[in-house]
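Entry type: protein chain
Record version: 2
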Amino acid sequence: MHTWLQDLRYALRQLRRNLGFAAVAVITLALGIGANTTTFSTVNAMLLRPFPFPQLDRIVTVWEAVPKQNNYHMSVAPANFRDWSERSKSFEALAAVQSWDANLSGSNVAQHVEGVHITSDFFLLLGMSMQLGRSIGSTDFQQGAPVVVIANGFWQQHLGSDPGIVGKHLLLNGETFTVAGITSPDFDFPPGAQVWTPLILTDTQKNDRENHSLTVFGRLADGVSISQAEADLQVIAARSEKQYPNTNTGHAVSVRNTVEDLVYGSRQFVLLLMGAAVFVLLLCCANVANLQLARAFARQKEIAVRTALGATHWHIGRQLLVESVLLALMGGGGALLLSRWGIALTRRSIPSFIVEHVAGLKHLQLDSRVFLFTLVVAIATGLVTGLAPTWLLSRPNVNDTLKEGGRNSTPSVVRHRLRRLLVISEVALSLVLLVGAGTMVKGFQSLTKTDMGFDRSHVLTFHVALPEAKYRNKSGVRPYYDRVLRDIAALPGVESAACVTSLPSGWSWNWVEYAAEGRPPAGPGESPSAISQVVTPSFFATLRVPLRRGRLLSEQDERDAPAVAVVSEEMAHQNWPGQDALGKHIQVGHPGTTGPLRMIVGIVGDVRPNPFERDPAPTIYVPLAQQPEFTSAFVVRTPGDPLALSGSVSAQIRGVDPDQPPYDVRSLAQVLSDNLSGIELSAHMMSVFGFSALVLAAAGIFAVMAYLVTQRTHEIGIRIALGARRVDVLRLIVGFAMKMAAVGIAIGLTLAALLARALASALFGVVQTDVVTFAVLTFLLAAVAAIAAYLPARWAAKVDPMVALRNE
């Protein structure tokens, strides 16, 4: 132990004597370990363990699919879910959930609550226990007082963490619910849910095969794979198709791993960041290797002296081992602080709306296993790069080394090639990261500037969910919307206001089947579909959606007036190419339904569903007066900051009905920004990784050239003494560096082109191959490499030949 402590003290003296080397090595390791810990902690939270359920890999999501429509996935009809539950043998349990917008009243101020109706096996399937009380069971589906389970976060924030809440009553949508239990703090499923209540269906609803409103989850039975479960359900679906051809023809089944299904939209970006973090770690390891090599070769004389005095290979190796581990531990300490800061910054940069609704983000924290793994990788790198060359150097010809009088011998060919290889690899990896970051940043900027067919500026948005129990048969829906819009329009600073089913860019679209006049009747399961929007007449003016032909919806399109619709240009083109769509008729709904035959009175510009879609979606606009909906979004145009009106607008809404609070109050621009926040965060992190790569590449080139100048001081002195000009020395040193950089850039460009092509395929609409970006970033890296080489070259050019030769 005394010997090891002595080695530790000597290592500390050595590092203190070489503060520059120690500082660069520690910072480099901290950067590499910290970046990987932050990124892989996010990967673990979002992709690997977003939920704390036991045997999470056996939990799956089951969808109905329409293969003839590019395997379009949709929610499940209640009767089909019943068939699966009764006939399938592939699951330990199947459960269905149905989203539910509720208003909690009875307190000082009513508030919106995100809820879900669930079937009896839901909590049993997930294997989670309650923190307080009990979960919902089969007895709660019998006649009696309805019960509710409350999310832990909602209980803390809105109910004062009252432990006596179990057994008490809550008023949700005007109905009294008894609190059965409080979930554990880590329970968040489906993401964003705040209350869970029993899904009680009438006999008619249980036999419904047209209303696709359920999301189905299952726990696979022991030994059953996803493909086997899907094949089992396909047999049941085929039988249902024969029995119910009008509703089930063309409907297949898709079984997916629940975690993969929920994180599908963000998985590609997280994996991209994971790859970038690995690249940064490789760069850091290469840089540390360069530093260790330079320091090892500079210590040849020291090692020779220690060998001459009787030190064995074990003694020298042990000392170097202590120094390498000490450096790694110091870098690990810095990485711990850096990763904690990085995770905190990541959480703050993600909009609260996204944190609430994306799996795993609520519980994003430092993963100690990831930190320890990357620390071990860094230590191993330090050991290999620190011990290997010095172990070779510990076998020198002691007499030859000591006779050199302090001048280092010319680097061996192997040593020289190794250092050049490390620099070339650093430049290549740096260019790959720079191009990846550049294309992603440019792609994000392109998405934010995309023309989506409407004006998103200066628009306030919010939602209102009217309870069916209070607004029965939708008879009170229209008067409610009319009064709210009238009161909001009267506010100072409001230019116009309107209602719409789904916000443009809001990711919640109502796709419906339809039949169009003049088109041949579609076969079972082959009906075309379009986005259905129920709007008030002022919607088009509020979002500035242009009229192309005909007229817009008007106040005269009342409930008893002829059924009309306005369609988008894409809708008209798909159904009546080369014809005038005005005056044509469409029937919205599943074939065989009794929906009204609507005449097309106008054609408006296309509105893109989201920034990633290059092609517009066919859209049908229906007057709210003719098809009132319980849940709707409001859009309010103002001349200034829309959020400045949020307080006044909320007061007006509560004045109409105090039990119906507005929720999800944001600007329309913020809605789009929030939906792009994952890409924005990825672009920012890629930029950080790219900048780090640029700095590390510059540091690597600088270290190599500085070492080269030190090694070649004698040679440079002779060159200058024989008449070489300073510019010749600069050209010699910088030229050598730029040759290495050129090789690295050539390799990096090849890898970057392959990466850009892969990203453009995996992140369609986000990353596009751009020659200008490649050229600019290549020039930037070359310029940085030249500057990094120029500084040591200047030192070499200032060498006094007399001093250099006298010292030699």
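Comment: The first strand starts at residue 59 and ends at 66.
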